[in-house]
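Hey team,

Filing this mostly as a record. A colleague (T.K.) asked me to run one chain through the structure pipeline before their review meeting, and I want the input and output archived in the tracker in case anyone asks later how it was produced. No errors, nothing strange. Just documentation.

Input sequence:
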Amino acid sequence: MYPTKTALILIDDLAAWQKVNISAFLTGGLMHGYPEMAGEPYRDNDDNFYLAMIREPVFVYGADSTTIRRTYERARSRGLAFSIYTRPLFATSNDADNRASVAATPAAELDIVGLGLHGERKLIDKIVNGLKFLA
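Output structure:
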């Protein structure tokens, strides 16, 4: 068992493509903020090289808007650095516009549809307490 845990929390009523897209964005943000998440590169028997993947499982939970907001507040109150995805980002087409959209919105008004968390296992377990795996 790893001493750390990675969890994604997604609004459960999104389209499948949105859930997959958000998961990729959130995980990319976590890898930037927590480079120790990366495992070692792969090499096959023919000596072809492949990039490293995340070294531990990623747990994906579903939530409604009230629950994801509560989870967001739990993470913030514990001082955890985490990644977010907001609903308006579906309408943007680049990173600069994504950041501008978030920057223009007060924290209490962020329409959060995804969270990416990584940290000490017990801390993440407290933050995601009561959530169910995404079905």
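Quick notes for T.K.: The beta strands are 4-11, 42-43, 49-50, 58-63, 83-86, 112-120, 132-133. The longest strand covers residues 112-120.
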